[in-house]
Specification:
heterodimer, A: alpha/beta, Rossmann fold, seven-stranded mixed sheet, four-stranded antiparallel sheet, 15 helices, 15 strands, 19% strand, B: alpha/beta, TIM Barrel, nine-stranded parallel sheet
Amino acid sequence: MTKFSDLTRMPDAQGHFGPHGGRFVSETLSFALEELEKAYMSLRDDVDFQAEFDRDLAHYVGRPSPLYHAQRWSQQLGGAQIWLKREDLNHTGAHKVNNTIGQALLAKKSGKPRVIAETGAGQHGVATATVAARLGLKCEIYMGAEDVERQKLNVYRMRLLGAEVHPVESGSRTLKDAMNEALRDWVTNVDDTFYIIGTVAGPHPYPAMVRDFTSVIGREAREQSFAQIGRLPDALVACVGGGSNAIGLFYPFLEDEDVAMYGVEAGGDGVETGRHAAPLTANAPSGVLHGNRTYLMSDEGGQVSDTHSISAGLDYPGVGPEHALWKDVGRVQYVAANDDAVLAAFRELTRVEGIMPALESAHALAHAKVLAPTMRPDQHIIVNLSGRGDKDIHTVAKIDGLEF
Amino acid sequence: MNRIDKRFAALKSQQRRALIPYITAGDPAPQHTVGFMHACVEAGADVLELGVPFSDPMADGPVIQKACERALAKGTRLTDVLDMVATFRATDAETPVVLMGYLNPVERMGYEHFARRAREAGVDGVLMVDMPPEEMAEVAPLFSEHGLQSIFLLAPTTSPSRAATICRHGEGYLYYVSLKGVTGAASLDVDAVERQLAPLREITDLPLCVGFGIRDGDTAAAVGRVADGVIVGSALVSRIAENAETPETIPAALKAVLGDMRDALDRSDGR
């Protein structure tokens, strides 16, 4: 029993993480969620299901992903040793596939022939289209029209994989609007459709279910720490949009009190400018969106705010409800990295270690750059390198004044 | 007695069906809404559902999404919607008004503050689309204390045990969503609706009103034969959209749609 043991027993039976979470949906979705909850609860402790999940993670995704000691970069920064959890090396190039494998297996077991998903940067859409192709499921992806524009490569990847991609023109034309549209699709096609949510948000049981699937990251990292460092790390760093890669890394370390955790939100032009996607860092008030109560960027009248980030994957006004609780109890410190610092970190890791990170992951790297020099060389930081940067080459090239 | 209960009691004694129009407050601009509300009453509306515009209307189809966007573009906030109800009440003390929308604007205003302001404005009921009874434990007493009735949705997919819970918590009337989908979706199957309403009648005395898919006199009359009331939203909001550039023509357009429905309902009254 440690100070943080209670945190490992969340959520409660109704999906609440303290005051956050829950199931705030239209009645038209209640049945689908009850059905999903039942299916998940019966399979999460099912030995065969877990074995199939683990087998797919090993042989299809390529797990375990390495824990790589970024020695040269650590030396340059002149402080703690930085270790990269290489989720960029997964099949499809990001951590998202851990979750989609789990949910697609669930879809198959539930006899649903069609899957839908929302996507921001396109990584979750690609990961969903990938597993759908493999399992022979019909797949439709909702993506904000603005994101379709800035992530053309991933849109084409999804189409090659056989998915239909629907650009969403409503609202701010980004991730939150894609999620609205996916929910509308689900309400309409609830009989034959499984909605694969890509982050630890949404109505219960999604936040808990996605956390469980994605926690393979932290379980491996914890074992690898003992094997490679000889002890637990001193700090963990991961980027937070909805927050699934961060929860995946953090969750298995929750009770390790001496392991500090930093969730890095998208600071955009700077939290003080209002043009950001950092609800926790900006102390946004509690709100309700997409089926859960959480900290949410909204105006005084309760209208959800437009967000800004260089990375489409973090461009979301809310955050998973479990992160909201972790902020409340002080288990995780939430900070923001601004676009310019993110770009600098992107370039630096590419040049110093020969690893091109996703712009999302570069948020975590940007904070590691700040953190490492404040620590001793015999201390260790694990950074979740949640995805690779190929998809962002167009965005970076554009900033450099190049067009392909 | 709450205005909603009073109205349904009167309808019952007259063996008439309720006609319940929905419009989005502030669409196409805030100054028109009160006039539209009066026009609906003149055309025979029994209860008014006034939509509170929201940036992310997840349960709504494109027609009401765009209405929200138009209303928000003109700066319509929840406080403005409450002011509209107060203005409407100054000249109509009888017609029940239900605020319908999503939770976040209310959450941001604060439940107690909202409940007080809503009562002062003359609101009778609240239907928060994304707040099921399970999440209302703390809020429901506050609403009751201020005389606000909690209206809930029921869907074709609602399980019998959930239906029992919803009927236990529901007040005023129950809003039965006639089909799987978002507002403004395709046509509805009246026979199926009738079959689905039957078990609900066993467990509740609340009036059962049906929405989604009601677009004209014929569909209204068909549903009116099996339900206690019909709710019409997208069919009205489309008229508002078509005439958004000439808002002075909208009251007549709304009256035309509702008038047909009223006549059709009254012709087919009695069960």
